[in-house]
Amino acid sequence: MSLTRRPVVRADLRALMALKVAPAQRQLVAETAVTLAQQAYEPPGTHVWGLWDGDTAVGLLAMVDPRTYPELEPEDDREAAFVWRLMIAEEHQGKGYGRAALGEVFSVARDWGLPRVALTFTDIPGNAEPFYLAHGFTRTGRVVDGEVEMMRGI
């Protein structure tokens, strides 16, 4: 397993849009096609990458750079890179790709010169909170757009 993060290009769209999470997870994360469509209309500061193992698409990562994103709320942490979306396709879960994707998240945050990473999750059964807790994230006490915020230093 060797995960790489690549900018989304036209030639990769079909492979990325074919990625799906397990049926029980569909209410937890938006489909890849939705993220790709939304990204086209997001302001500067949003970034979306395909997650690949060689020539195989395994997931999608979307992040917000708070230094250049013009639509932050007053209470948003301007020193925290924000994970907007992180998904690993059903058939690739349980193989270490999620852990490797978090490594990419931390790498991006370091490249941006930011000391923390923030993310949110939907607080319903089957969510990703145990995964994030196992990787050092803690709840901040904030609820953002109906989702629970977590934070971790890097």
From TrEMBL:
SUPFAM superfamilies: Acyl-CoA N-acyltransferases (Nat) (SSF55729). Residues 3-154 form the N-acetyltransferase domain. The keyword Ribosomal protein does not apply. Keywords: Transferase. PROSITE patterns: GNAT. InterPro entries: Acyl_CoA_acyltransferase (IPR016181), GNAT_dom (IPR000182). GO terms for molecular function: acyltransferase activity, transferring groups other than amino-acyl groups. CDD domains: NAT_SF. Pfam families: Acetyltransf_1. This is GNAT family N-acetyltransferase. It comes from Pseudoroseicyclus tamaricis.
